[in-house]
């Protein structure tokens, strides 16, 4: 399990996510919500297409320092415990790697928990990357999710979740 801290800009827009982590700025833009998907008989979620840009920030920039020091109310710090693996296909087999492995294509499977506004929250996400689509082995998905019950109402991006929490 990895402990990490992400700082999200709460812009109340479900289609744009901006975060800071370890001197990097990441911007994600949701370009499409394709369809609903059933991962297991108990777990459903939306399949979405996102474009991501990531670049280094200047750690001595005064605006950056104000954000990471909690001086900007429009930024929300979330400290999370994260379990993640990369999954890819090699020779028609599903292969699992740690998330620091450099792969041309695959799927990141991430399960995290964090506390926000005094409540405990959990996230589960699948993020495909690269030009080739990795087909997930159903037995592996069943092993990961077990008896976890996830509904479409619970399926949302971080920007959507932060907007909901701000209401």
Q: What is the alpha-carbon Rg in Å?
A: 17 Å
Strand elements, count: 8
Mean pLDDT: 91
- Order of H and E elements: EEEEHEEEEHH
**Which spans have pLDDT < 50 for at least 5 consecutive residues?**
none
Largest sheet: 8 strands, antiparallel
The share of residues in helices is 10-25%
| Number of helical segments with 4 or more residues | 3
The dominant shape is globular
Observed structural traits:
8 strands, single chain, mainly beta, 167 residues
Protein model, in words:
- This protein has three helices and eight strands.
- It is mainly beta.
- Strands 1, 2, 3, 4, 5, 6, 7 and 8 form an eight-stranded antiparallel beta sheet that branches.
- The two termini are about 30 Å apart.
- The mean pLDDT is about 90.
Please sum up the structure shown.
The chain is mostly beta strands and 167 residues long.
Question: Any chance you could write out the topology, listing elements then pairs?
Answer:
Blueprint: E1 2-9, E2 16-21, E3 24-38, E4 44-56, H1 62-68, E5 75-90, E6 93-97, E7 106-116, E8 119-129, H2 138-145, H3 158-165
Antiparallel strand pairs: 1-2, 1-5, 2-3, 3-4, 5-6, 5-7, 7-8
């Amino acid at each position: 399990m990895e402990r990490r801290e992400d700082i999200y800009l709460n812009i109340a827009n479900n289609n744009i996510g901006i975060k800071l982590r370890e001197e990097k700025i990441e911007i994600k833009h949701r370009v499409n919500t394709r369809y609903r998907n059933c991962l297991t008989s108990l777990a459903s979620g939306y399949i979405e297409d996102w474009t991501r840009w990531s670049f280094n920030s200047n750690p001595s920039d005064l605006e950056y320092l104000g954000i990471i020091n909690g001086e900007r109310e429009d930024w929300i710090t979330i400290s999370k415990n994260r379990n993640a693996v990369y999954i890819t296909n090699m020779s028609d087999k599903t292969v699992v790697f740690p998330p620091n492995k450099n792969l041309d294509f695959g799927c990141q499977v991430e399960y995290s928990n964090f506390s926000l506004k005094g409540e405990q929250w959990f996230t589960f996400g699948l993020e495909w990357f690269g030009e080739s689509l990795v087909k997930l082995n159903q037995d592996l998905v069943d092993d990961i999710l077990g008896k976890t019950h996830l509904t479409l109402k619970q399926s949302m991006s971080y920007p959507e979740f932060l907007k909901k929490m701000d209401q």
